[in-house]
Task: inverse folding
């Protein structure tokens, strides 16, 4: 060794990487889990699962009209609320590759992938624990029947709400903690997303209000200046379709939303409480099989209120601490309040979940149609990091824990927390398996529907009458080569979301009829079968009956 020169340790001359820049084992596992979640849903799409319906086909028809430049709807066809954002996202896909169910759902799959990445980022912002982030991503990578329906079916609102809601929470953490760089852009992004969600679907408003309250609480002074003006302008831009339509027509979309939520119907309070608090949470959050909940799967309904209380309590305790310690992500923020910001956002997520559950339980939908309307609880998944964090801190206590072990109660609480976390994953995985097993049957049903469309084309049928759940699905699957008008089971005109189709069918000389085999409509049409003038002839396809008028 040369005199006067000290030997340096190997690698001493190399710059050390910043904390968190190396993936490590947990990073690779998280990435693989994200790919698994997206891959599972891509496999479902390949099997035409979840099953489509006429409401989703209505969104597809709107996307087709946008792609052709024929129409640019403000609302979902046939109603005065719920902006058809999914149609605008699918229109470029249709313009490039033509209309298809797979193409309609590609944007919703992308929105799910974005949701998964954002929820991972939010979890790290709130807790700083990468292993906990892996747990959250693993849970949300699973997909029970109701969950994948909300995430993949382009029926309006649900696929985009969770991704945008998590984005609002991430932006709220960064802005409230004083994270430097691109602050005006972040303020504008938060405002635009908030306004956009107001147009798309108001179900996510509890999360807009809760994260907005965090911003007001921590950054009210900044909001008095350019940041507040920019946020307001961006919010107006995001909600521009809603605001413009309301000003031009004088209609209040809130009235339509309340009517859709069951405000014009009545349900008993026992039915509402059963649907809203017992059946709704396990169904809506992915712990039940397709269309039903086994008794043992209802355990989540009893665990959820406890988790909400504990999560709110631990967040409130942290929030009351004086500022000054470093943040969960290692950056103290401009005023050293990052831990309090993280606690405030966790509390906001808990309160938003409570507000969502409360609004759903108060609505008549929870009592009248609890299985189908449990989709209204889809946004509660945004709160998963806040709900499970106290459990995780008991199972794997560390410097950032929300609770401080050990203690006499901790020896009991720790195994209980472990059991609840394990049961959460196992129950969600079991429900995911139940959903996956329906894929072959759904694919076969879609093949039978494709055969129906092909048969109508072969017969030269251009105009038909059918039930609501047949009509727009048939029109979309044929790319409007077959146009359908809705009838009810008594053959009277039904609800046409796109009235132009009815006008076209009414002008046709001899429209055909289509009905599912064994349906009340098919039984009514069977009465008109015969060989005489005015009678109907019959062509059968597996699962379907086509009634052709005789000359």
Result:
């Amino acid at each position: 060794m040369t005199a006067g020169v000290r030997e340096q340790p190997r690698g001493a001359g190399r710059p050390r990487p910043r904390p968190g820049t190396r993936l490590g084992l947990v990073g690779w596992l998280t990435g693989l889990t994200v790919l698994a979640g997206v891959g599972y849903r891509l496999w479902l799409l390949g099997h035409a699962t979840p099953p489509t319906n006429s409401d989703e086909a209505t969104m597809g028809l709107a996307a087709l009209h946008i792609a052709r430049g024929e129409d640019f709807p403000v609302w979902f066809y046939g109603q005065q609320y719920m902006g058809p954002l999914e149609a605008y996202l699918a229109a470029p896909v249709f313009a490039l590759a033509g209309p298809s169910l797979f193409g309609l759902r590609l944007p919703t799959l992308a929105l799910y992938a974005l949701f998964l990445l954002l929820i991972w980022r939010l979890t790290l912002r709130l807790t700083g624990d990468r292993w906990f982030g892996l747990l959250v991503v693993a849970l949300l990578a699973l997909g029970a029947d109701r969950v994948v329906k909300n995430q993949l079916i382009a029926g309006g609102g649900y696929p985009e709400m969770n991704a945008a809601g998590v984005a609002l929470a991430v932006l709220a953490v960064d802005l409230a903690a004083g994270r430097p760089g691109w602050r005006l852009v972040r303020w504008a992004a938060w405002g635009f997303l908030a306004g956009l969600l107001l147009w798309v679907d108001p179900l996510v408003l509890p999360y807009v209000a809760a994260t907005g309250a965090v911003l007001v609480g921590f950054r009210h002074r900044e909001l008095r200046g350019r940041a507040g003006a920019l946020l307001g302008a961006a919010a107006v831009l995001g909600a521009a379709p809603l605001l413009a339509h309301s000003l031009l027509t004088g209609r209040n979309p809130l009235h339509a939303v309340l009517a859709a939520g069951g405000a014009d119907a009545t349900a008993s309070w026992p039915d509402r409480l059963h649907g809203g608090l017992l059946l709704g949470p396990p169904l809506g959050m992915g712990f039940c099989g397709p269309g039903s909940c086994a008794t043992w799967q209802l355990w989540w309904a009893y665990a959820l209120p406890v988790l909400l209380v504990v999560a709110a309590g631990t967040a409130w305790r942290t929030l009351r601490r004086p500022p000054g310690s470093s943040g969960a992500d290692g950056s103290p923020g401009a005023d050293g309040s990052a831990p309090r910001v993280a606690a405030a956002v966790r509390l906001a997520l808990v309160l938003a979940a409570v507000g969502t559950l409360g609004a759903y339980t108060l609505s008549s939908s929870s009592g009248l149609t609890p299985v189908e309307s449990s989709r209204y609880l889809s946004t509660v998944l945004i709160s998963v990091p806040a709900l499970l964090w106290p459990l995780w801190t008991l199972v794997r206590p560390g410097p950032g824990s929300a609770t401080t072990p050990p203690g006499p109660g901790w020896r009991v609480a720790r195994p209980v927390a472990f059991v609840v976390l394990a049961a959460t994953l196992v129950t969600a995985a079991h429900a995911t398996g139940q959903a996956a097993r329906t894929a072959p049957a759904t694919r076969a049903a879609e093949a039978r529907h494709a055969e129906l469309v092909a048969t109508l084309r072969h017969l030269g049928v251009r105009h038909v009458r059918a039930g609501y759940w047949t009509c727009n699905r048939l029109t979309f699957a044929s790319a409007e080569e077959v146009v359908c008008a809705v009838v009810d089971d008594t053959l009277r005109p039904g609800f046409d979301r796109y009235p132009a189709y009815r006008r076209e069918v009414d002008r046709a000389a001899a429209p055909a009829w289509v009905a599912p085999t064994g349906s009340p409509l098919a039984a009514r049409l069977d009465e008109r079968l015969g060989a005489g003038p005015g009678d109907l002839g019959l062509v059968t396809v597996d699962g379907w009956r086509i009634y052709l008028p005789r000359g």
Q: What stands out?
A: The mean pLDDT is 89. The two ends are 107 Å apart (CA to CA). Residues 101-127 form the longest helix (27 residues).
